[in-house]
């Protein structure tokens, strides 16, 4: 299957939009899971798109950026991984390890280039401030979208338009002469979401909230066991009795999310009620016994 021109066009346009959504629009369409969904819809394979997008989302759970720092562009990596995975019939986990993560890392350079290019418009704005030209200030502010969008659109377009042959040759080589390496990359792609969880747990205040962590893990494990047992029992009964029409489903991610939300709401209510009221002459800070500011005060 080849990537058609209109698919390249739509994926390129979305690549330009997603970075604008990430830095200002904030519609959540700039998340890798949505990038996978949209790329899957465009390529005609939503399942593959969600597998790669969801895996990439889990991989970067603990990755963040502060101030003007650049981070890996998981969205562009997801777009290319989904497109080539569907077009070339790649294993989604292999596409994640060989395309999504490397491309996301390389896109740091184009992100830095976009930031440098935007200084041109920043200096123009400084000059227009001196002359009180408010319309020109607004225009140059909006012109800043151009370098940001092009920093994603150009690499994605070039890769989709001219990189198909290279990727196909590499995939064929990995699945033939270097099958051991291809299988290893597939395993590595499956492990990457666990790495994302590990990074996230490293930066979360687990030591402070470890009772919630343990309780949430145990409850989830128990519910999964119970629901899986009920699903297996229902399947067995349905095989014995054709008139048995009750369907048993597994524990949904929404149920797990609601458990986590309940714990978060309890902790938020507890900390907000115990927070000291600011006194006259300055705001009071909630410090612990070691003199460190609590994480909910940051």
Automatic annotation (TrEMBL):
Enumerate the subcellular locations listed in this protein's record, separating them with semicolons: Cell membrane
Task: Write down the membrane topology.
Answer: Multi-pass membrane protein
Q: Where is the stretch described as Disordered?
A: 275-298
Q: Tell me, in one coarse class, where this protein mainly resides.
A: membrane
Using the record, list the residue span of the signal peptide; answer none if the entry has no such feature: none
Annotated transmembrane regions: 31-52, 154-174, 180-201, 213-238, 244-266
Q: Which UniProt keywords apply?
A: Cell membrane, Membrane, Phosphotransferase system, Sugar transport, Transmembrane, Transmembrane helix, Transport
Q: Which PANTHER family match?
A: N-ACETYLGALACTOSAMINE PERMEASE II COMPONENT-RELATED, PHOSPHOTRANSFERASE SYSTEM SUGAR-SPECIFIC EIIC COMPONENT
Protein name, as recorded: PTS fructose transporter subunit IIC
Q: Which organism is it from?
A: Staphylococcus simulans UMC-CNS-990
Q: What is the lineage of its organism?
A: Bacteria, Bacillati, Bacillota, Bacilli, Bacillales
